[in-house]
Write the structure tokens for this entry.
Amino acid sequence: MYKYKRYIILLLIFAIVSLFKINNHSSWNYARHSLYKIRVAFYTNSLKNGGVERVTSILLNYLSKKKYFILYLITYKPRLNDEYPLSNNIIRISLSNHKRNLFKEIKKEKIDILIYNLYDINEIKRLNKLKKIKVIYYNHSSYFLWLFYHIYNFEKSIYMEYKNCKYILSLIPLENDYLFRIWGIKSIFINNPTTYEYDSVIPSNLSNKNIIMIGRGNDPTKRFEFGILAMKDIIKEIPDCNMNIISESNNKLQNLIKTLNLNKFIKIIGYQKNPESFFKNASLHIFPSICDTYGMVISEAKIFGIPTIICGLDYLALAKNGTVIIYDNNPNSLAKEAIKILNDEKYRKKLGIEARESMKAIKNDLIINKWTSLLLSVYKGIDAFSIQYLLNDEHILIKQKEAIKILNNQMNIYKANFPNLKEATLENFKFFFFE
């Protein structure tokens, strides 16, 4: 009996050591144990102007420095102008020619792991049937975004098919830790990499009265008009305040600025591949979106030590630390918080320090090490829950009480904005079923 107990103990020790080696990126040197390089392909629309595209570019460029992988970028669209940069050692495949399709290409190139960044349910169903290729579904969307676009039933949503996926990457703690578990989806929480290297950035000194908004101004979820309307009240208290909107020109926004006589105070700068100079000269970032998944621009503002006002999105991974959250739809409330921050130097700098300090845990070298472990773990066939345990060393699971509080907040926001959801209950939001 003692002999068997000893064997069991030895097996447990071996298992623990193996898990530790996977998590300890420096000690698990895959290259020493195999001459084969893992063929990893990222599949997305393009590399032009967007958060998903920016993240894809960053990840590929960092992972290209690792010795374990042969990397591919497969895009649905052809190569476009003004794309995010891509390392020369990454193999680029475009499916724009109708004779080429995703399944033929990944089979032809003998891809081991595909990172899928889109939401074609039929495509996902086919991918789930593949035997030799492991697929990671990188979920850049959010439950609340689907609600915004009037998807009101779990059975008709992308999540129905996610139940059949082995590896889902989630960027939202509320979804990963709570909703997905209720819905039967196995997911892995991970933070996005950042556009700027933390140690290379000189923070803004927060000495001026400049406000920044950045994103796709023609996207209705971004609600830039909310920030513009707030400026009408802000300049009454702070006449030397200015706002830069980093976005493509938009007639709707331009007309609103003109109607409110704010041309002197608000400039639409246009799309900027690298808006670093605008971050350096900003003292406040306004993020007025009604729904989002990660908010790359929040991470960028935080790295530059800039406070952010967020409109209700307390479910975002970056919602805390150096931020102020408002929950109503009144631009006056946004203006009041902006005035408070811009008029109180001590408070403004306190928020700025909190914002920048919070990004130490999301440095790119840490994120890329996690991605390396993720890919090696998936290649070895380790299950999603084990991988999540290995990767999420700084991520604390949301407790049910906090999850319910966040769901209640979002329910109130959606009921206030969408008349057809006025009768919705917490159970509707929890189980994604609306009559």
